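Notebook entry, structure prediction.
Reason for the run: the old model in the group folder had no record of what sequence produced it. Starting over properly, with the input documented here first.
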Amino acid sequence: MDLTQEKWAAQQAVKSNSIILDVRTPEEFEAGHLVNAQLLDIRNPTSFMEGLQALDKAQTYFVYCRSGARSAQACELFKQHGISDCYNLLGGILEWQGEIVS
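New structure, fully documented this time:
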């Protein structure tokens, strides 16, 4: 499900045990990422699929990338692998107005 930043943050606050996934490259992640985000690089297909298969299907995931395109793709892949509670950040980190760790 695609959510604006406001709705994404509100949903995340309600789902306190959720996981934030950054699907950008390691270089992008190191340049700056959201607080408590974990990296799962969608541009590395082997590593991404291994990481995806290791995820808890009962967990809630909040996924973002640079602009929202890769994270939308990641959410579709999650759904295909049985992870239904997945939220894509519209506009990605480019439009994020909160804290960023660098």
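Summary: The beta strands are 2-3, 19-22, 33-34, 38-39, 61-64, 86-89, 100-101.
The old model has been moved to the deprecated folder.
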